[in-house]
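Now read the record:
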Amino acid sequence: MNNIANAEISRPYAEALMSLAQSNNVADKFDSDVRSLLNLLKESEALRNFFANPFIAAEDKKGVIRKILSDDTNSMFRNFLMLLVDRRRIILLEDIAQEYLTQLREFNQIVLAEVISAVPLTDEQKQTIKEKVKSIEPNAREVELDSKIDSDIIGGVIIKVGSQVIDSSLRGQLRRLTLNLNKG
Protein backbone atom coordinates (compact mmCIF):
# COMPACT_ATOMS: atom_id res chain seq x y z
CA MET A 1 0.00 0.00 0.00
CA ASN A 2 1.16 3.52 -0.64
CA ASN A 3 1.56 6.24 1.98
CA ILE A 4 -1.63 8.10 0.99
CA ALA A 5 -3.73 4.96 1.37
CA ASN A 6 -2.03 4.22 4.70
CA ALA A 7 -2.78 7.74 5.91
CA GLU A 8 -6.45 7.44 4.91
CA ILE A 9 -6.79 4.16 6.82
CA SER A 10 -4.67 5.27 9.79
CA ARG A 11 -6.39 8.60 10.45
CA PRO A 12 -9.73 7.21 11.73
CA TYR A 13 -7.90 4.84 14.08
CA ALA A 14 -5.74 7.68 15.40
CA GLU A 15 -8.87 9.81 15.83
CA ALA A 16 -10.55 6.99 17.74
CA LEU A 17 -7.50 6.64 19.98
CA MET A 18 -7.49 10.42 20.56
CA SER A 19 -11.19 10.39 21.38
CA LEU A 20 -10.70 7.52 23.82
CA ALA A 21 -7.75 9.29 25.44
CA GLN A 22 -9.58 12.62 25.80
CA SER A 23 -12.81 11.15 27.12
CA ASN A 24 -10.85 9.30 29.81
CA ASN A 25 -8.39 12.15 30.52
CA VAL A 26 -5.39 9.98 29.63
CA ALA A 27 -4.06 11.79 26.55
CA ASP A 28 -0.70 12.48 28.23
CA LYS A 29 -0.41 8.87 29.42
CA PHE A 30 -1.21 7.64 25.91
CA ASP A 31 1.41 10.08 24.62
CA SER A 32 4.18 8.35 26.59
CA ASP A 33 2.84 4.88 25.70
CA VAL A 34 2.72 5.76 21.99
CA ARG A 35 6.23 7.26 22.04
CA SER A 36 7.64 4.19 23.83
CA LEU A 37 6.04 1.90 21.27
CA LEU A 38 7.28 4.03 18.36
CA ASN A 39 10.83 3.90 19.76
CA LEU A 40 10.60 0.11 19.95
CA LEU A 41 9.40 -0.07 16.36
CA LYS A 42 12.12 2.29 15.13
CA GLU A 43 14.82 0.27 16.88
CA SER A 44 13.59 -3.16 15.81
CA GLU A 45 13.12 -4.05 12.17
CA ALA A 46 12.32 -7.60 13.34
CA LEU A 47 9.36 -6.30 15.36
CA ARG A 48 8.07 -4.26 12.40
CA ASN A 49 8.38 -7.30 10.13
CA PHE A 50 6.67 -9.51 12.73
CA PHE A 51 3.60 -7.24 12.86
CA ALA A 52 3.59 -6.87 9.06
CA ASN A 53 3.69 -10.62 8.41
CA PRO A 54 0.14 -11.78 7.50
CA PHE A 55 1.04 -15.43 8.13
CA ILE A 56 1.68 -14.91 11.85
CA ALA A 57 -1.40 -15.73 13.92
CA ALA A 58 -3.26 -12.88 15.65
CA GLU A 59 -2.83 -14.58 19.04
CA ASP A 60 0.96 -14.65 18.55
CA LYS A 61 0.95 -10.93 17.74
CA LYS A 62 -1.18 -10.24 20.82
CA GLY A 63 1.26 -12.27 22.92
CA VAL A 64 4.17 -10.16 21.70
CA ILE A 65 2.24 -6.96 22.45
CA ARG A 66 1.63 -8.17 26.00
CA LYS A 67 5.35 -8.93 26.39
CA ILE A 68 6.71 -5.66 24.96
CA LEU A 69 4.35 -3.33 26.81
CA SER A 70 5.42 -2.34 30.28
CA ASP A 71 3.24 -3.07 33.29
CA ASP A 72 2.29 0.59 33.61
CA THR A 73 0.93 0.76 30.04
CA ASN A 74 -2.67 1.96 30.11
CA SER A 75 -5.11 -0.97 29.72
CA MET A 76 -7.27 0.99 27.24
CA PHE A 77 -4.20 1.54 25.07
CA ARG A 78 -3.33 -2.16 25.32
CA ASN A 79 -6.92 -3.05 24.29
CA PHE A 80 -6.68 -0.64 21.37
CA LEU A 81 -3.59 -2.49 20.12
CA MET A 82 -5.43 -5.81 20.45
CA LEU A 83 -8.25 -4.33 18.36
CA LEU A 84 -5.70 -3.38 15.69
CA VAL A 85 -4.53 -7.00 15.61
CA ASP A 86 -8.14 -8.27 15.33
CA ARG A 87 -8.88 -5.85 12.49
CA ARG A 88 -5.61 -6.71 10.74
CA ARG A 89 -4.47 -3.11 11.05
CA ILE A 90 -1.46 -3.69 13.31
CA ILE A 91 0.68 -3.31 10.18
CA LEU A 92 -0.30 0.39 10.30
CA LEU A 93 0.74 0.82 13.93
CA GLU A 94 3.56 3.26 13.13
CA ASP A 95 1.32 5.40 10.91
CA ILE A 96 -1.48 5.38 13.48
CA ALA A 97 0.93 6.30 16.29
CA GLN A 98 2.47 9.16 14.28
CA GLU A 99 -0.99 10.48 13.38
CA TYR A 100 -2.06 10.28 17.04
CA LEU A 101 0.98 12.36 18.06
CA THR A 102 0.16 14.89 15.33
CA GLN A 103 -3.42 15.21 16.60
CA LEU A 104 -2.24 15.49 20.20
CA ARG A 105 0.15 18.30 19.22
CA GLU A 106 -2.67 20.14 17.45
CA PHE A 107 -4.95 19.72 20.46
CA ASN A 108 -2.25 21.03 22.84
CA GLN A 109 -1.11 23.74 20.39
CA ILE A 110 2.36 22.25 20.17
CA VAL A 111 4.35 22.86 17.01
CA LEU A 112 6.78 20.19 15.83
CA ALA A 113 10.04 21.57 14.47
CA GLU A 114 12.51 19.27 12.76
CA VAL A 115 16.01 20.56 13.43
CA ILE A 116 19.01 19.33 11.48
CA SER A 117 22.43 20.33 12.76
CA ALA A 118 26.02 19.29 12.10
CA VAL A 119 26.67 18.66 15.80
CA PRO A 120 24.41 18.01 18.82
CA LEU A 121 22.73 21.19 20.08
CA THR A 122 23.19 22.58 23.57
CA ASP A 123 20.15 23.23 25.76
CA GLU A 124 20.66 26.96 25.22
CA GLN A 125 20.67 26.50 21.43
CA LYS A 126 17.52 24.38 21.62
CA GLN A 127 15.80 27.08 23.67
CA THR A 128 16.82 29.74 21.11
CA ILE A 129 15.38 27.61 18.29
CA LYS A 130 12.13 27.10 20.23
CA GLU A 131 11.80 30.88 20.68
CA LYS A 132 12.49 31.43 16.96
CA VAL A 133 9.80 28.90 16.03
CA LYS A 134 7.31 30.54 18.43
CA SER A 135 7.96 33.87 16.72
CA ILE A 136 6.99 32.43 13.32
CA GLU A 137 4.13 30.29 14.71
CA PRO A 138 2.21 32.71 16.98
CA ASN A 139 -0.46 30.13 17.93
CA ALA A 140 2.14 27.75 19.36
CA ARG A 141 1.97 27.38 23.12
CA GLU A 142 4.93 25.04 23.02
CA VAL A 143 7.52 23.76 20.54
CA GLU A 144 8.67 20.15 20.29
CA LEU A 145 12.04 19.61 18.62
CA ASP A 146 12.86 16.56 16.54
CA SER A 147 16.66 16.83 16.31
CA LYS A 148 18.77 15.07 13.74
CA ILE A 149 22.52 15.22 13.14
CA ASP A 150 23.84 15.60 9.57
CA SER A 151 27.53 16.49 9.30
CA ASP A 152 27.05 17.24 5.58
CA ILE A 153 25.50 20.62 6.43
CA ILE A 154 28.97 21.62 7.75
CA GLY A 155 27.62 24.02 10.40
CA GLY A 156 24.54 25.98 11.41
CA VAL A 157 21.04 24.50 11.41
CA ILE A 158 18.11 23.75 9.16
CA ILE A 159 14.70 24.16 10.81
CA LYS A 160 11.57 22.69 9.23
CA VAL A 161 8.17 23.69 10.59
CA GLY A 162 5.33 22.34 8.47
CA SER A 163 6.09 23.51 4.92
CA GLN A 164 8.44 26.29 6.07
CA VAL A 165 12.19 25.72 5.93
CA ILE A 166 14.74 28.01 7.53
CA ASP A 167 18.16 27.06 6.18
CA SER A 168 20.98 28.77 8.07
CA SER A 169 23.44 25.94 7.41
CA LEU A 170 26.85 26.65 5.94
CA ARG A 171 26.05 24.29 3.07
CA GLY A 172 22.88 26.31 2.33
CA GLN A 173 24.78 29.61 2.53
CA LEU A 174 27.46 28.27 0.16
CA ARG A 175 24.78 27.06 -2.26
CA ARG A 176 23.09 30.48 -2.25
CA LEU A 177 26.45 32.20 -2.75
CA THR A 178 27.21 29.92 -5.71
CA LEU A 179 23.80 30.65 -7.26
CA ASN A 180 24.36 34.40 -6.86
CA LEU A 181 27.83 34.18 -8.42
CA ASN A 182 26.47 32.21 -11.38
CA LYS A 183 23.78 34.86 -11.99
CA GLY A 184 26.30 37.69 -12.08
